Amino acid sequence: MDGNEGTVMNESVGCSAVRGMRVPDRPAAIDLLGELLSLRAVSKPRRMDRPFALYGAGKLGHMAMDFFSHVRLTPTVVVDSNADRLRDDPYWQSLKILPPSLVTAGMKSGLPLVVSIATTCFTELAETLRSQGWQDIVPVYDVMEAYRDRYPIGNGWFMGSVNSTERTMIKRVLANWTDDVSRAHYLQFLAWHRLRQDWVFDGALVDAASRYFIPEILSVLGEQETFVDVGAHMGEIAKAFRDMVGNRFARVIMFEPDPRNAAVIQEGLTMLPEPIRGRHTLFTQALSHRSGKRPFFSQLGYGSQLCEVGSDFVEVRALDDMDVAPSYVKLHLEGHELMALQGAEATIRRHRPVLAVTIYHSDVGVWKLPSWLMELLTDYHYYLRLHSWCGTGAVMYGVPMERRRTSSHDGQQYA
Known about the structure:
CATH superfamily of the largest domain: Vaccinia Virus protein VP39
Strand order of the largest sheet: 10-9-8-15-16-18-17
Distance between the termini: 34 Å
Oligomer: single chain
Shape: globular
CATH architecture of the largest domain: 3-Layer(aba) Sandwich
CATH class of the largest domain: Alpha Beta
């Protein structure tokens, strides 16, 4: 295949890594998409109906334990290379924690291993774990997907089969990314959610360090930005923005409806010196396509969200109903990004902000959200970057053409 000699695809399903592919140009990417869509789709959420082990006790491991608590599951053992340190952490003290070297052969053969790591290629990690004797290895997001009626995190969705209309729309989105790296990341994103395969392209590696601030974004940021952070969590992205621009900005406006998260943001703001603190505004409403009240699932950290099974109710606003003039909008809303964008359509048209939108929380990110933006704003450059593995960390970036400075990004010159 043009630009991808040596690549071998096959009909096997389940997790496998495909490496050695060069970043494809547009025609080669379209050929690869046709091959990807011709392979048999995987659709296997995994319930834990017997004892199991958890692998990884980092940030995702904490989220996994919160999930297990909600659905009344408890791992028999937690496996982590930092087991000695974790035993002194009150969070983990009620659990049996072992380093990999002390896990018995019986555990490896008898317990499913739920992997809560998204900072490395899952399928290569799984191959290493199999070589150590583990026989049944499953991504934690596949388990979460089986309990969506009780726990709303949606990162483990399966793309499934697609009809002719969907194929056309996916192909159109693929063709409309501005650069070849975006097309490579889009194919990798689709391959995981359709096949549970890692398609890894040389020159288009997962970038865990620059989420929301890739070079194509940093190159257009000025000293008078109004940064609107929708889904602000605990304010860490707002802080990263301030650091990136050296505290030279007009305003930072944050939306965070989770009371616990919002309290952390508020406390952090009190620590800022004036006049920097005075240039911040925190709203505790959620954003959606129209104003009102909606059920909300709180205390999920990053994952708190509008959700029909949520036990709290929060006020919901449409950005178009507010007096906000953004120049950079970041949205991370656990699958509700498209509705928030629809409620901000007039604002986006009027102010033409730079955009950073997560698209990995539901299958809306396959083509519905990207095509909505691409059709709304035809004179933007669009990029897709993966910032973590297992089909997560996919962020769609939009840059108005008039804001592109002279740059060598994409191998072309833009004024």
